[in-house]
Amino acid sequence: MSIIERGRSVITVYSETESFDSHRIRFLLATKSINCKIISVDRNNPPEDLLANNPKLEIPTLVDRDMHLYGVNVITEYLDERYPHPPLMPPDPMTRARLRFTVYRLEHGWFEYISKIENNTGEIKKQAVNDLTAELVAAEPLFSENPYFMNTDMTLVDTNLVPFLWRLEHYGLDWEALPKSLRNYAHRMFQSKAFKKSITESEREYRFDF
């Protein structure tokens, strides 16, 4: 990603090529056309400068001048405030709080299935896939009421959610069994230039229809 913003220093983002959390940050960076340097990290051989400031090796990590940030929500809100165009959070406090709460519910709801599916096999994984499918089917109205997820404009909720939807088939969910409104929303977002730019080569293999 190399869109130059005059008068801005280039930030650095340490990212993993197949990490859901890293993809969320890469999609946000591409959506805002933020000039940045992305460094792919191998956890078995991490850069020394990253370890010096982040000994627990929490990735993604953002470096802006002498500031080091990690934690997806910390990074996303910082980027949205530092690079306000296009804005991905509305100006009024009540709507901002509602959207932050939506991200919180995703973190403690659908996104928790990621570790259950990635770290298990057999019946445990199968049950997690079935449970997640059922929850997504029940959420059909959330995808059909607005152009974006629970909002008329694109927000940080979408930059968090779309990389998750990209992985569903890879996790073993039957795409055609999911609500049509969810699939339509996902396909439209997958086709965006920003999302295509955010995907690594290994992540492209998660789906074969794009």
UniProtKB/TrEMBL annotation:
Coiled coil: none annotated. Residues 9-87 form the GST N-terminal domain. Residues 92-208 form the GST C-terminal domain. Pfam families: GST_N_3. InterPro entries: Glutathione-S-Trfase_C-like, Glutathione-S-Trfase_C_sf, Glutathione_S-Trfase, Glutathione_S-Trfase_N, GST_Omega/HSP26, Thioredoxin-like_sf. This is Glutathione S-transferase N-terminal domain-containing protein. It comes from Marinicella sediminis.
